[in-house]
Specification:
Rossmann fold, 37% helix, 6-stranded parallel β-sheet, alpha/beta, 6-stranded mixed β-sheet, 3 domains
Length: 427
């Protein structure tokens, strides 16, 4: 009898895991309590994978030998609790895929800058002519690439949720950019639980492997003093020897935080022995990431910037820190247990108007109400843009950097950013 694998969640990671499991001869069943979108349905059907959506039929899930869980499903979900109680192993798609490839794994995590740094490292490796795949939170499912392609290297962006269900997986190069409170609603509102999840990126590493980390981050610094890690350590920061082969003014990515991201990417490229001239050229020509401090348009002398990817307070801090003009800040959405005090000083220094855009703005009103700034309270994108347009003066910047998840009004942060850009261009 072949082993039965049940995949919970049929998005990019779940569908890919199901295809790989089927290809490796397992009995596979996919269960999604939401609606499986058409492209993934077609993929599962083409590969003869049985699936259900709109429910989890317990008798078809609880009989699994192993569960591959979507990162979006919390460990507190009743079905997951039942599976854990009966001792069924629950793993992530990344853990499963890694069993079937000997490729070198370059893995990036952190509260902020993951996508930019992952994309930059992928770009450098491509420029160096390496056979490389992009996976994790961006790119295509790692499992699907392992099933249908054969890369020598994978550059993988990992969230804390993906790291939660990784056990035997090992990163050849692990990069930890920073740690600030985020997703605390998934970690019993205990910051240490989230920190522990991030440090799982170093799991199973030996002295043959590299751990690259921002040594000036106070949380990382504290943990490094406490932990005994097996990897070879590569700290970086402004107070250390500069690894960059170009001047900061030559970097394609602007802003102090992007100097750090570029340092991390450079060290990873050096560990992989990529030629200096390739690294130099890549750092100068990289185009950046959609929805991360993305210039949209200038309307009546006002610049509009889409930073929809700022789904936590610290991301917004980085965005505000890079502003060089008076700013109208649009923020709000689904609050994840946010502490807004981190951006207080920058809001006072840089902003003259705050536009709230969410279904529940009470916490924002309470926190920022006494700052003496103009506040525009809205519950939809149209009113938010109109309010920002009316408040902005020539030479200002309107910055969408929400601090919050998008799910109250939008399908995703990409959807929020796309709608913002379309509305700006229609002004």
């Amino acid at each position: 009898m072949s082993k039965r694998i049940v995949v919970l969640g049929a998005g990019e990671s779940g569908s890919g895991a199901a295809i790989l499991a089927k290809e490796k001869g397992f009995e596979v069943f996919v269960s999604d309590c939401g609606t499986i979108t058409e492209p993934y349905r077609a993929l599962l059907d083409q590969n003869g994978v049985q699936w259900e959506n709109g429910q989890h039929t317990e008798e078809l899930v609880l009989n699994a030998d192993e569960i591959i869980k979507s990162p979006g499903i919390p460990l507190t979900a009743p079905l997951i609790q039942k599976l854990q109680a009966q001792g069924t192993p629950i793993i992530s798609e990344i853990e499963f895929a890694a069993r079937y490839t000997n490729a070198k794994m370059i893995c990036i995590t952190g509260s902020n800058g993951k996508t930019t740094t992952t994309s930059l490292i992928f770009y450098i490796l491509k420029q160096a002519g390496l056979n490389v795949g992009l996976a994790g939170n961006i790119g295509n499912s790692l499992a699907l690439q392992v099933a249908h392609e054969d890369h020598d290297y994978y550059v993988i962006e990992l969230s804390s949720f993906q790291l939660d269900n990784m056990y035997d997986f090992k990163a050849d190069i692990a990069i930890l950019l920073n740690i600030t409170p985020d997703h605390l609603d998934r970690y019993d509102y205990k910051f240490q639980n989230y920190i522990d999840a991030k440090f799982r990126i170093t799991r199973n590493q030996t002295s043959d492997d590299a751990f690259i980390y921002w040594a000036e981050d106070p949380v990382i610094d504290r943990e490094m003093k406490r932990l005994q890690l097996g990897a070879t350590l590569y700290p970086y920061g402004f107070s250390m020897p500069n690894p960059l082969p170009v001047g900061e003014d030559e970097l394609a990515l602007k802003g102090r935080h992007n100097v750090l991201n570029s340092m991390a990417a450079t060290i990873a490229a050096n560990v992989l022995k990529i030629k200096n001239e390739v690294i130099r050229e890549s750092l100068k020509t990289f185009q950046g990431v959609e929805h991360r401090l993305q210039y949209v348009a200038t309307v009546k002398g006002v610049r509009y910037i889409n930073d929809s990817k700022a789904t936590n307070v610290n991301s917004c801090w980085y965005a505000l820190e890079s502003m060089t003009t008076p700013t109208v800040l649009i923020l709000g959405g689904k609050d994840k247990g946010n502490d807004y005090s981190e951006i207080d000083e920058l809001v006072k220094q840089k902003c003259h108007t705050l536009v709230f855009m969410g279904l529940h703005n009470e916490k924002l009103r309470e926190h920022f109400g006494g700052f003496g700034l103009q506040i525009i309270d809205t519950d939809n994108l149209h009113d938010a843009i109109q309010g920002a347009y009316n408040a902005a003066r020539e030479g200002d910047t309107v910055l969408l950097s929400p601090c919050c998840a998008s799910f109250d009004l939008f399908k995703s942060y990409e959807d929020r950013g796309d709608q913002f850009m379309a509305a700006v261009r229609a002004l």
